[in-house]
Amino acid sequence: MLTLINVINSINNNAYNSLKALFLSFLLAFSFTSQTDEYVPIPLDKLVCYGQGTQQQLSPSGEFLAAMVPVDDNVCDIKDETDQEMMATDRVLVVTNLETMEPKIISGTTAGSAVTSFRWLNDERLLVSRDSRAGIDSASLYTVDRDGKNTTLLIKAKAFRNKPGYQVPSLYGVYPRVPGKVMISLFNTGSRSRDLYWLDLETKRTELVAREPSVPGELVTGWMLDWEGVPYGFETFMEEGPNKGIETTFYKFTDNGGYEKVLSCMHQAACFFPQSFDIDNKSILGVGQAVLPNGQIINETDTNALWSINSETGEYQEMIYHDPDYDLSSPMHGMYSMNMWFSSGGYELYGFSYEGAKTEKVYFDEYFASVDKSLEAIFPDHEVRIRDWSDDLTRFLFTVSSDKDPGASYLFDLSKGKVSKVSESAPWIKNYQLADIEPFTYTSRDGIKLHGYITLPPNYKDGEKIPFIIHPHGGPNARDYWGYNPEVQFYATRGYGVIQMDYRGSTGYGRKEMILANHQMGKKMQEDKYDALMWANDQGYVDMDNVCISGASYGGYAAMQAATKNPELFKCIIAYVGVYDLTSMDLRGLQWSELGMPMEYIEKGDPRDPDDYKNLYENSPLFFAENVEDPILIITGRRDTQVRFQETVDMVNELKKYNKDYKYIIKGEEGHGFRRETARLELFQDYEEFLTEHLN
Description:
Blueprint: H1 13-23, E1 28-29, H2 44-48, E2 56-58, E3 64-70, H3 83-87, E4 91-97, E5 102-107, E6 113-120, E7 125-132, E8 140-145, E9 152-156, E10 158-159, E11 166-173, E12 181-188, E13 193-200, E14 206-210, E15 218-225, E16 231-238, E17 247-253, E18 259-266, E19 272-277, E20 283-288, E21 290-291, E22 297-298, E23 305-310, E24 316-321, E25 339-342, E26 349-355, E27 359-363, H4 366-378, E28 383-389, E29 395-402, E30 405-413, E31 418-424, E32 437-443, E33 449-455, E34 466-470, H5 486-493, E35 497-502, H6 511-515, H7 524-538, E36 542-552, H8 554-565, E37 572-576, H9 597-604, H10 610-618, E38 632-637, H11 645-657, E39 662-667, H12 677-694
């Protein structure tokens, strides 16, 4: 174990003791943690505790590591705070010399304000963003030396003189091709606009780069700049007109200072979304379909591919990569966000990653590939993600995680041939035996290839038929991922098998599968969940007399729909912050705003249309409570802004009206998903009690 010198004396004793414990975990030689052969289920409190993540970044040379470090020890200590509240607790910015192992606290919390983010400008100096819990007017950007000296205020938020609101600065980007400056956005709270400025680090002067365009009826959602910080174009989302809420448009700036439409995309249509300039600073990389302005599709792929286009002509130059089973990136609308590995300044593109059954990686650089694959060999059965690296590619900062491990950060020093641990998200997890989560594919009854994950208890014996939990994800425009999932681990470590399925309508599997889900809530989308159960039964895993369905949000809807339409399949039902009345989607709440409704109408149906209303009514559990046969655990938060609280009250009243077996839990301080550790612990305790009673 490496020994670190004392932290500066200015820190108080309590904070020092907490930080000392964390620093002593820095840069330890890697070793695997052994587990006892005796199976001991993980205590519930260890599953609900939030781990303390840290922001970490290598200096350009890789000689120094900067990290935002929580003052408190990273231990499992149940608190009545949300994860956001816990993340807002005092943290300090620490720079560690990787040769001497000397840590230095260079910034912390003062006068009610706190460091929120940082960037290395060079090996000597950092750019730091400070926000305030006492008032927005103290938000600021400043620079500081790596030893904590020479703190210089660059710009801070200011109130407008002649109109209400503030102008709030935030870092937009650092462009190595433009030394001595950084790009900032100034958010004007009164007008909702974000203008771009160069900020000179020496003179502190700002230079206007571009004002956010005002496009009638459209909301600007993002900029696109080249590697020299030159604005190329911007993206909008339709706020008014016939395509309100369903059309995304990309504009290109013209030589005369105006802009012109390059392409537009309707919800669920074939689309192309620019992602980034290529290393030549001329071509543009984007994800989607190769769609011409007239709507014609070139070489249709269904799943979204990576394309290169000419920035001047818009001509598609090359389909760089395509996966026939998985989208490379698939938000519902707006700019795509692939994890692309560019060198500083964008001079090289080493590769990218995307989500398949597990994380998939594509390499364009053999050296980078060899480093990544070497790290993967050190950590079998884990996902390795390189997060940062030195300019000379000799030091790499990376994270390691798995289905049984929320994750840890490591440093790889190629010159020393050494892998060292930097921090660990939830170290208490490794003391317990958790369950393997395995991807699988299955075929729906109407012939669609679908994906999912199956989890068997850690002490499962081959050939056993065991109780199962069917656990559909929320959304429904979302998907499940391979990785650590506390709720799945809760079920599995209590002896239940778990099936997570990406039913039709889940994102990431191409346009065709998504479109096949339109107007199918409670129907074919529901059947997909049952088909996943039948697949698991065909493998010999399931005790079909002991199956429960559990879900949150849309998953809560699916659970209650099963209770009212197919109670014969299940022994019990857990519906958590669920939707129960599809006909009232117009009243859903803040998160289901007027702008979002047109997409809902496309996917689910328009309750103003008589035929759609009939379909929505027939597939709303609220109106069929008399069919319920299974015991139900129904859970909600009083402050839910995505599902109307009254909707849950109405569902409970219907269950009560028909004298059904149910238990109703409400948390007054929680919203759409319980966030406080105390509330989550009570939730898992309620789950355990309910399942112990109803699932053998």
